[in-house]
Specification:
The structure is a single chain. α3 (70-85) crosses α5. The protein has helices at residues 3-27, 42-45, 70-85, 90-111, 123-144, 152-156, 160-166, 170-182, 197-205, 229-234, 270-283, 290-301, 305-313, 323-332, 345-354; strands at residues 215-216, 238-242, 251-253, 258-262, 264-266, 317-319, 341-342. It is mostly helical. It folds into two domains: 29-167, no CATH class; 215-354, no CATH class. InterPro entries: DUF247_pln (IPR004158). Pfam families: DUF247.
Length: 355
C-alpha cells in the first residue's frame, strides 16, 4: 500500500476515535466540573464502613429512603413547619422557598455530579429533599445558638421581626459548631467560595498559621515518615503542647529538640469527622491534601498504645477512648489515600536529622 494512502487511513481512524470518545466523555458523562459532593471512594470506605454510615438522619439524596432513617423525616417536616410558622404568612413563605429551590435545582444537581448521579426518582422528589434538609439545617443551627426557642409553646409566640433581629449568618452559626467540637480559634472565613458545610469544615479545620515546607511525593515515601513518639523520646526529642488552636500548626524546634504540637481532642465522633474531611479532600482536587498529610504524620508518631500514653501525658491528646483504640484508629486513618505532595516534608526531615 502506498505510504500516502496509509497515512490517510490512520488520519481517518484518529478522527473517528476522537469524535467517538469526545461524545462519550462530554456528551454522555454525568460528571460535572462543578461537582463538589462525592460518594466515598471504595478504597477509603473499606477501612471502616461504619464511620460513613448515617445512623439518625442523612442530608441529600444518596441515603434518602433508607428505612432506618425514615423516622428522621418526621422531625425534618416539623422543622419546616416551625420555620415557616414564624412568618406572617406561612403559605406564602412555603411558595417562596419552593420557587427559590426550583431556581437553584440545576446548580445543586451539578454539585452531585449531574442528574445521573442522584438517587431520586423525580425532580419533585429532589426538590422535597432540598427543601426539608435545608430548613432542617437552618433550624438546627439556629436552635443550637439560642436564636430560636426549643420549646413549642414558646416558639408559637415568637414573631418574625424578633427572630430577624437576632439572626447571624449561617456560616457563623456553622463555625460555632466546629468551635465547640475542636476548640479552635473562631476563624474568620472571608472572600472564600464555600460549597457546603463539609467544605466550610475543611477550611476551618485545615487552616494553619504556619508556612509549611512542602515536598514532592515522588521523591520518596520516607520523606513523610517520622519515628514514633517513644522512639523520639529515646533519641532525646521532647514534646510540648502549644497554645495554637489550629491542629496543623506542628513545629520542630531544632535548637531545643522540641516537637511542638497543638492539642487534639479525641472523642467518639473524631474518626467520623476526620474520615469525612479526608474523603472530601481526596475527591475534591482543588484542595491540597493537608489533612491527609496530618493523618500520615500522626500515624508515624503513634505506633503503639504506649505512644498514645506518652502524648496524652504531655496533654497533646485529650483522649476519651482507650490508648489501644486510639492507636488503631490513627494507624488506619490514612489507609487508602493518595497524596502527590507532602505537607510536613520539611518538618519530618528536620526531626530525622536531629535524631
Amino acid at each position: 500500500m502506498p505510504e500516502g494512502n496509509n497515512r490517510a487511513e490512520h488520519l481517518a481512524l484518529d478522527v473517528h476515535w476522537t469524535v467517538k470518545y469526545k461524545k462519550l466523555l462530554l456528551g454522555d458523562s454525568t460528571i460535572s466540573r462543578a461537582t463538589c459532593i462525592f460518594k466515598v471512594p471504595g478504597t477509603l470506605k473499606m477501612q471502616n464502613p461504619q464511620a460513613y454510615k448515617p445512623y439518625f438522619f442523612s442530608l441529600g439524596p444518596w441515603h434518602f429512603g433508607e428505612p432506618h432513617l425514615m423516622e428522621a423525616q418526621k422531625y425534618k417536616m416539623y422543622s419546616l413547619e416551625q420555620l415557616v410558622r414564624r412568618f406572617p404568612s406561612p403559605d406564602d413563605k412555603i411558595k417562596d422557598l419552593e420557587e427559590t429551590i426550583s431556581e437553584a435545582l440545576i446548580e445543586a444537581c451539578e454539585c452531585y455530579g449531574g442528574k445521573g448521579a442522584i438517587n431520586v426518582y423525580s425532580r419533585e422528589e429532589f426538590e422535597k429533599i432540598f427543601l426539608l434538609d435545608g430548613c432542617f439545617i437552618i433550624e438546627m443551627l439556629r436552635k443550637r445558638d439560642g436564636l430560636i426557642p426549643t420549646n413549642y409553646s414558646e416558639d408559637a409566640c415568637m414573631s418574625g421581626p424578633e427572630s430577624q433581629r437576632k439572626d447571624k449568618p449561617l456560616v457563623e452559626l456553622a463555625i460555632d459548631v466546629f468551635y465547640s467540637i475542636f476548640s479552635f480559634d473562631k476563624l474568620q472565613i472571608r472572600s472564600l467560595k464555600i460549597n457546603h458545610i463539609l467544605d466550610l469544615a475543611w477550611y476551618y479545620v485545615g487552616s494553619s498559621s504556619e508556612q509549611p515546607r512542602w515536598g514532592d511525593e515522588h521523591l520518596g515515601q520516607n520523606r513523610h515518615n517520622i519515628p514514633s513518639a517513644t522512639s523520639l523520646r529515646e533519641a532525646g526529642v521532647k514534646f510540648r503542647r502549644v497554645e495554637s488552636r489550629r491542629i496543623l500548626d506542628i513545629r520542630f524546634n531544632n535548637t531545643e529538640g522540641v516537637l511542638e504540637i497543638p492539642s487534639l481532642l479525641i472523642h467518639p465522633t473524631t474518626e467520623t469527622i476526620f474520615r469525612s474531611l479526608i474523603s472530601f479532600e481526596q475527591c475534591y482536587r482543588p484542595h491540597l491534601p493537608k489533612l491527609t498529610c496530618y493523618a500520615k504524620l500522626l500515624n508515624g508518631l503513634v505506633d503503639t498504645p504506649e505512644d498514645v500514653d506518652l502524648l496524652s501525658r504531655e496533654d497533646i491528646f485529650n483522649n476519651w477512648s482507650t490508648p489501644a483504640d486510639v492507636s488503631d484508629f490513627l494507624n488506619r486513618l490514612h489507609n487508602g489515600t493518595h497524596v502527590d505532595c507532602l505537607y510536613y516534608a520539611g518538618l519530618c526531615s528536620d526531626v530525622r536529622s536531629y535524631c
